[in-house]
From TrEMBL:
Residues 926-945 are annotated as: Disordered. This is Predicted ATPase. One of its GO terms (molecular function) is adenylate cyclase activity. It holds the Pfam family HTH_77. Residues 928-938 have a biased composition (Pro residues). Coiled coil: none annotated. Signal peptide: none annotated. Residues 13-126 form the Guanylate cyclase domain. GO terms for biological process: cyclic nucleotide biosynthetic process; intracellular signal transduction. It comes from Micromonospora carbonacea.
Length: 945
């Protein structure tokens, strides 16, 4: 260190750097190494030592610098790495890869140096890094603020640094211009294995495991042979997992099935061990040198994918050192000296001593329970289970496939198909799966080794930024497509067609739907898709449903279009959606039933998918019919805006294609649009489409349709505050409908008129009108679930001060609206019951219900309508009665309630007859009755008394 340099004290950040593989680099470059080293020193001094850091030591290729500020130290390291990466070196292989480590601790310099364990901790952090990587301790991460622009710290977890007993949390500096992908840190607690985690239990094989363990302990190379599906990999992994403690340098699993280039076998093993290429040296030499002094077990799986390359690598590893053992799985042996070949037997199908089930049956039992959501097969199914495993000869893969079949079949049904076992289990499996490749022939798993190959051959790898972009694109666009293509190419024609056609469905489908779609027995192709996990089968009490993951659906939809089948499939889905909506309005007897919006909820996703097709490639007329099937659902679910947008798109499709839509259907669509616009607060649009609906209905010449359209004319007038005009419009359409004997179609006008009469205090006329409307409402399946007559009679009773009638009518309305899914209208009823509670002397419940109703209304994006001013007036009166603090507290409590909870609170309000001060009986002079259950809905004499 140069004398006179000021050394920071207090919280000091120590930085250590050195060149990874400097010895190998010096051997490779010879005399050219000195200029590279000199240039490396210059770059680091320019970026590290010339900041506010104090250089303490420079020796060979190493730097030791102290900084008074952690943020400045990280900024200096980032600048240094960028300078090294962008510098013009004599050749790509001459570029030094510098690792950097930082740690911050309390230190005081003495005699020009630091005698502190914090220095040693910083050195160990640097030793854990790889060339091009910047690591820092948790202390540095905590104190480094602000970070350099665009930079962040990636948490690598807890690690035990060599020489320290505690664990240190390490962070990697991430920033543009820095490489991001590195092997695990070189720490003392490196993971002892990378064995794949098994998601299912390992069943049986006690004898086989004991024998194979004995062989592995006594021989350095053991090869497990067997046919495909014999369970080689699973047994080998299970065995290796129990031997981790015996190998201090780890047990390492390498899947050779993903390696398609023989030259990449050594790279695949090296990548698992965390090794990187060294300049001018073969990867296999680096690998052998690393393994020579270590005691480890390497599990090479599916070596028959690259038998020659595996044999060569195994020979070199075994010859390089005595601590390495190899357990391999393959369909053929290597023929190497010292190799022990062990052939895996099938699972035993014979019962164990003592009467216990055989290993094969035990496996099928376990997998069957998993396939059935944890429910084990019944004892009566035991005979069928034994028959299945015997026919399968105890082959584990076949048993797994049989269990998977039980997602769509019972054990008995599967047993009935045993005459054609292969046909039942392997339908569509006539093509052997191949690893997914891109257009260059690389598999997705090989992307991380491409740069290693380039480096080993002296080629310049891509820059970190370019590599990040390429890798991101591959992961997002290529890898998923390649993975699905791999499975898709193994499908037979029927399974592939079913997969394509199922892509038109947005959600799960049941077996009858699959049968309807395929117009054929779907068991064979559906089983293929479930087995290959391209379709997920989900068991329910009423039967299994089948669901496709979104990425697979997108892929299948693309294939559908490529096959020229999209129009046919989507038109069939449109027909299914239309039929499903129609059936939701019918009872089991096929007759119209009270509409429940809950029956429409499961269909919404399919309707949206069908509407999307109607607006892009299908029929606008069909789309208008489909949207009409969810007429009230859009508004009651707070989706009036979405309903309007679909209609706008369908109008555009009509204009684009010139498709003719009959006036009657246009009138219905425009009328629905008007109601959507009103619910969404677009009152001018509401009136415009109401007028267009009237014009189309008059052209159609349908009196009932025109009555329904005209009955809705009051709504936009009310929304715009034109109450007198709205009342006049209601009376006109009611009279007009009576003259033409379509009075039932004017029900909406009757209800609107009753609301207007209530508003101006004409309660007797309103009650009389509603009393006559009750049978009309009951005759309309689409309307009676709303119980609008009871809701309005309750409002009339509230205005008259008759809490008994109000209570009975309002609770009837609320129960019906909740049980049939009319959530927006239920908000009005909650408001009304809040008013009734306040009038009945229960202000706390009233305030809570006001809060709940308003919160739900806001979540549904619903306008308050004609009652809005009344609710505000009643809330203001309640606030004055309770005081601001008490009212706000109760109101806030209510706003936290969900709609179901709020409805339960409202329905629990005590009936006024149960109170000792019941006004009804006091007014008539009758004695107050004993408490009794709430009576049926009130008689409609005057509607409420």
């Amino acid at each position: 260190m140069t004398s006179g340099v000021h050394l920071p004290s207090g919280w000091v950040t120590f930085v250590f750097t050195d060149i990874e593989g400097s010895t190998r680099l010096a051997q490779l470059l010879g005399p050219g190494y000195r200029p590279v080293l000199r240039e490396h020193r210059r770059l680091l001094r320019d970026t590290l030592a010339r900041t506010d850091g104090a250089e303490l030591l420079t020796e060979g290729d190493s730097f030791f610098i102290a900084f008074p500020d952690a943020g400045a130290a990280l900024t200096a390291c980032l600048t240094a790495q960028r300078a090294l990466a962008t510098h013009d070196w004599p050749a790509p292989e001459a570029a030094p890869r510098v690792r950097m480590g930082l740690h911050t601790g309390w230190a005081e310099p003495r005699d020009g140096e630091y005698a502190s364990h914090e220095v040693h901790r910083a050195a160990r952090v640097a030793a854990a890094a790889h060339g091009g990587q910047v690591l820092c301790s948790a202390a540095t991460a905590r104190l480094a603020s602000p970070l350099p622009a665009g930079a962040s710290l990636l948490d690598l977890g807890l690690h035990r640094l060599r020489g320290f007993d505690d664990r240190e949390r390490l962070f990697q500096l991430i920033a543009p211009g820095l490489e991001r992908q590195f092997p695990r840190p070189r720490t003392a607690d490196a993971v002892a294995h990378n064995l794949p985690t098994q998601v299912t239990s390992f069943v049986g094989r006690e004898t086989e495991r004991a024998e194979l363990r004995r062989l592995t302990a006594g021989h350095r190379l053991v090869t497990v042979l067997g046919a495909g599906g014999a369970g080689k990999t699973r047994l080998a992994v299970e065995l290796a997992a129990g031997m981790v403690e015996e190998y201090p340098d780890g047990v390492w699993f390498v899947d050779i099935a993903t390696v398609t280039d023989p030259g990449l076998v050594a790279f695949a093993v090296a990548a698992v061990l965390g090794l990187r290429p060294e300049p001018g040296r073969r990867m296999v030499d680096t690998l052998v040198e690393y393994a020579a002094a270590r005691r480890m077990l390497i599990l090479l799986d599916t070596c028959d994918a690259q038998p020659a390359a595996c044999a060569e690598l195994i020979s070199l590893l075994l010859a390089g050192g005595g601590g390495v053992r190899v357990l391999a799985t393959s369909r053929e042996s290597f023929g190497l000296p010292g190799e022990v070949v062990w052939r895996i037997p099938p699972l035993s199908v014979e019962p164990r001593p003592g009467g216990a089930e055989s290993d094969a049956v035990a496996l099928l039992l376990a997998r069957t329970a998993a396939a059935r959501g944890g429910r084990e097969p019944a004892p009566v199914e035991s005979a069928d289970l034994r028959r299945v495993v015997r026919q399968l000869d105890g082959l584990p893969l076949a048993i797994e496939l049989a269990a998977a079949r039980l997602r769509v079949l019972s054990v008995g049904q599967l047993a009935e198909r045993l005459d054609d076992v292969l046909g039942t289990l392997d339908a569509g499996r006539d093509a052997a799966p191949q690893p997914p490749r891109d257009e260059l022939g690389w598999t997705g798993n090989q992307q991380d080794t491409v740069d290693l190959v380039a480096a080993s051959r002296g080629n310049a790898p891509p820059t970190p930024a370019t590599r990040a972009v390429q890798r991101s694109a591959a992961e997002r666009h290529l890898t998923m497509q390649a993975t699905v293509t791999w499975s898709y190419r193994t499908l037979g024609p029927r399974a592939a067609r079913l997969l394509r056609w199922l892509a038109v469905f947005a959600g799960p489908v049941d077996l009858p739907t699959v049968e309807w779609l395929l117009d054929d027995d779907p068991l064979d192709p559906l089983s293929v898709l479930v087995d290959k996990s391209m379709i997920l089968a989900e068991p329910h009490a009423s039967g299994s449903t089948y669901r496709m993951l979104d990425p697979i659906r997108a892929y299948a939809a693309r294939r559908l279009a490529q096959a020229g089948e999209e129009r046919a499939a989507r038109d069939r889905h449109l027909a299914w959606s239309t039929r499903a909506l129609r059936r939701a309005h019918l009872g089991p007897d096929g007759r119209p039933t009270t509409l429940s919006l809950y029956a429409l909820d499961p269909l919404a996703g399919e309707v949206r998918a069908a509407l999307r097709w109607c607006t892009t490639g299908g029929s606008a007329r069909d789309g208008l019919r489909l949207a009409g099937g969810l007429d009230q659902w859009w508004r009651e679910r707070g989706l009036a805006r979405e309903g309007r947008l679909w209609l706008f798109r369908l109008y555009g499709r009509m204009a684009e294609t010139g498709e003719h839509v009959p006036d009657a259907e246009l009138a219905a669509a425009y009328h629905m649009h008007s109601l959507h616009a009103g619910a969404d607060g677009e009152f001018a649009e509401e009136l415009r489409y109401s007028q267009q609906a009237e014009a189309a209905a008059r052209r159609a010449g349908d009196a009932g349709l025109l009555a329904r359209v005209l009955a809705g004319r009051a709504a936009p007038l009310v929304d715009m505050g034109q109450f007198a005009d709205a009342e006049r419009a209601c009376r006109d359409v009611i009279a007009w409908a009576h003259e033409r004997e379509v009075a039932g179609d004017a029900l909406f006008a009757v209800l609107s008129l009753a609301e207007l009469l209530w508003r101006r205090g004409a309660l007797a006329e309103a009650a009389e009108l509603l009393g006559a409307a009750r049978p009309v409402e009951a005759a309309h399946p689409a309307d009676r679930g709303r119980r609008s007559v009871d809701m309005l009679l309750g409002m009339v009773a509230l205005a008259r001060g008759d809490l008994v009638a109000a209570h009975e009518h309002l609770l009837v309305a609320l129960r019906s609206r909740m049980s049939h899914g009319f959530h927006r209208r239920a908000c009005d009823t909650l408001h009304a019951i809040a008013v009734r509670s306040a009038a009945g002397g229960d202000p706390l419940t009233a305030a809570r219900l006001f809060g709940a109703a308003q919160a739900t209304r806001e979540s549904l994006r619903s306008t308050p309508g004609i009652y809005g001013a009344y609710w505000l007036e009643r809330q203001a009166a309640l606030r004055r009665e309770m005081g601001d603090v008490a009212f706000d507290e109760a109101y806030a409590q209510g706003s936290e309630l969900g709609l179901e909870e709020a409805a339960a609170l409202a329905l629990a309000v005590e009936h006024p007859d149960l109170g000792v001060d019941s006004t009804r009986f006091a007014a008539t002079g009758l004695p107050t009755p004993a408490p009794a259950p709430a009576p049926a809905p009130a008689r409609p004499a005057e509607g409420c008394c």
